[in-house]
Amino acid sequence: MNLLFFQQYWWTLISLLGGLLVFLLFVQGGQTLIYTLGKNESERTLIVNSLGRKWEFTFTTLVTFGGAFFASFPLFYATSFGGAYWVWMCILFCFVLQAVSYEFRSKPGNFLGKRSYESFLFLNGAVGTLLLGVVVSTFFTGSSFSVDDLYRSRWETPWHGLEAVLNLENLALGGSVFFLSRLLASLYFINNIDHPEILRRSRRQVLYNALPFLALFLFFLFRLMNAPGHGYDPLSGEISVQAGKYYQNLVDMPLVRAMLLIGAGGIVLGAWQGSVLSVHQGIWYAGIGTVLAVWALFLMAGLNQTCFYPSTFDISDSLHIENSSSSLYTLKTMSWVSLLIPFVLGYIFIAWRAINRKKISEKEINESSHTY
């Protein structure tokens, strides 16, 4: 268990958190469907309360994802969160709006009105998912930054991260995350809501969002498989551009390749069950598929001597798991703490089952003392 082992261990763990985060973005996707699926006040309240019981899971996972990066790969955290701060501030602002909206939407004396907070929820769902996908895409396309000999990073454009939105590959992955979140949300509503009209509209939305998701995701994968990547020599530390690097990573890592294929197949199967077969369990096939596919993308970006954060300003400043990680002592200490993760996941599973024991209905909302 040397330093490299713990670097790979924590990259694998962070990659898993990334997969879980993208799955939980179904909450954001559902927020963009409030007016598409809810045609009156009662239906919209039912949808908001269905999502309101899960929004903390997404927010907590996002914070944990960022915290794990800060502790295990601090140079990346300082470079991305400190340099591309405008795009991260936009993401943070969207999630603050979400928290405020669920808290105050149904409060007595709400002077803004429910529609204002529902608009905030839509903004969080649309902009938040798009920008998160764009940020993840920069793990492959790179960003304009430099790192000096004292490991001080500097952003080399005045836009501080917003320039990533102008990249076609970044937008493709951002768009695919947006439509995937809406696809997962539609499957979640089929599984969670007891309302015939909402279920009928949700089944239609599964198909409407599955097609653009597949188109954008396959476009991103095609461009990625044909694009050069940044690799490094583990002995000398020299960084170089390597043709077909990400394709070669899939060849060299058959387990990651299997995860990507099984994950994509799970999403398609879940969408098929929800839209064609009208099966209520499609969310679990698509959800597990999402976790596996995103997990594989992160592993492909950071393992096999690959720079997970290429610098488009100076190739030698690109970051990989060996030159951006914490010390052996820090990684080893955190690894003991990470052994508690299965217990946390078990708690989440039990809490989820307790909340979802029966489908939410208008009758339950009307009889409840607390509504979002």
What string, H for helix and E for strand, traces the elements in order? HHHHHHHHEEHHEEHHHHHH
Q: Beta fraction of the residues? A: under 5%
Estimate the helix proportion, in percent.
55-70%
Radius of gyration: 21 Å
How would you characterize the largest beta sheet?
2 strands, antiparallel
Annotate the secondary structure layout.
Elements: H1 3-24, H2 26-31, H3 34-37, H4 41-52, H5 55-72, H6 74-83, H7 85-104, H8 114-141, E1 145-147, E2 153-155, H9 168-192, H10 196-225, E3 229-232, E4 239-242, H11 245-252, H12 254-277, H13 282-302, H14 328-338, H15 341-355, H16 362-367
Antiparallel strand pairs: 1-2, 3-4
